[in-house]
Amino acid sequence: MADLTPTQNAPGLHVSKHSPSEPATASAVCHCGATASANGDTQVAALVAGWTANHGSAHAAGGNA
Q1: Measured CA distances, 32 to 20, 35, 55, 64 (Å)
Q2: Average pLDDT rounded to a whole number, residues 29-35
Q3: 7/56 Cα distance (integer angstroms)
Q4: Is the pLDDT of residue 47 over 90?
Q5: Residue 49 DSSP SS3
Q6: In a 3-state reduction of DSSP, which class is residue 44?
Q7: What pLDDT is attached to residue 7?
């Protein structure tokens, strides 16, 4: 399997949950230079919400830089 971890050269959001009984993990790198990581379902959900609101496609829609 390919390494899906985001980098400055390949920005994005990666979320992983290996089984229903284990906590989720996530990492994000935005083309604006912002980075984040999270462990645990609640923290991962917050990271995804923040990414959606402030990074990723939000930049294309005139969101935060």
Answers
A1: 33, 9, 8, 9
A2: 90
A3: 13
A4: yes
A5: helix
A6: helix
A7: 84
